[in-house]
């Protein structure tokens, strides 16, 4: 009989439900502990990281063909990147104090969706041109981390699409749907942008 861990590891639906629950739980903590600014900031960042982990985990369920160690490394990397995006608050504030990082007059550069997607697009182009399979994989992990992070932040401030400005804040239900759909949309794009024909069997997209 499959355990909960086995189901979470192999079943896309169970993993997607977990992703939604993690997002809800994280947001619950963030909105209910407003008097403890440090707890709120840590919970917010951990939620970004956990959503990043689960997002790439679900992408990996779709894309078969890698060793367990490689899968775990990629999942961890996506979680770390999703979490690390918020470090630019500290860099922009030139301070390690959470209060300073949260009182910036404008959003720091890693929160600009259009610029981050342009950077990822350039990385993908390079990976395609020079047939760098690792760079291709890294680019998609970065895209998953950026989109999962920016979608969540967009419920408060919208998506920042320089030079066109920012979208209105995304309704919470829209964010939840987007966050749970994202890991099911990415795999076909990852498969279609593989850099070289000889790597065509590197990923095989498992049908939903
Ligand atoms: Zn953020």
List the helices and strands and how they pair.
Blueprint: H1 4-10, H2 12-32, H3 37-62, E1 63-64, H4 68-84, H5 87-93, H6 98-101, H7 113-130, H8 133-157, H9 172-192, E2 204-205
Antiparallel strand pairs: 1-2
Helix pairs in contact: 1-2, 2-3, 2-9, 3-4, 3-8, 3-9, 4-8, 7-8, 8-9
Features:
208 residues, mainly alpha, 2 strands, 2% strand, binds zinc ion
Note down, in words, how this protein is organized.
There is one protein chain. The protein is an all-alpha fold. It has one domain. Helices cover 70% and strands 2% of the residues. The protein contains nine helices and two strands, in the order H-H-H-E-H-H-H-H-H-H-E. It has a two-stranded antiparallel sheet with strand order 1-2. Helix 1 packs across helix 2, helix 4 packs parallel to helix 8 and helix 7 runs antiparallel to helix 8. The chain is globular and about 45 Å long. The two termini are 22 Å apart. Zinc ion (ZN) binds next to helix 8.
In brief, what are we looking at here?
The chain is mainly alpha-helical and 208 residues long. The protein contains nine helices and two strands; from the N terminus they run αααβααααααβ.
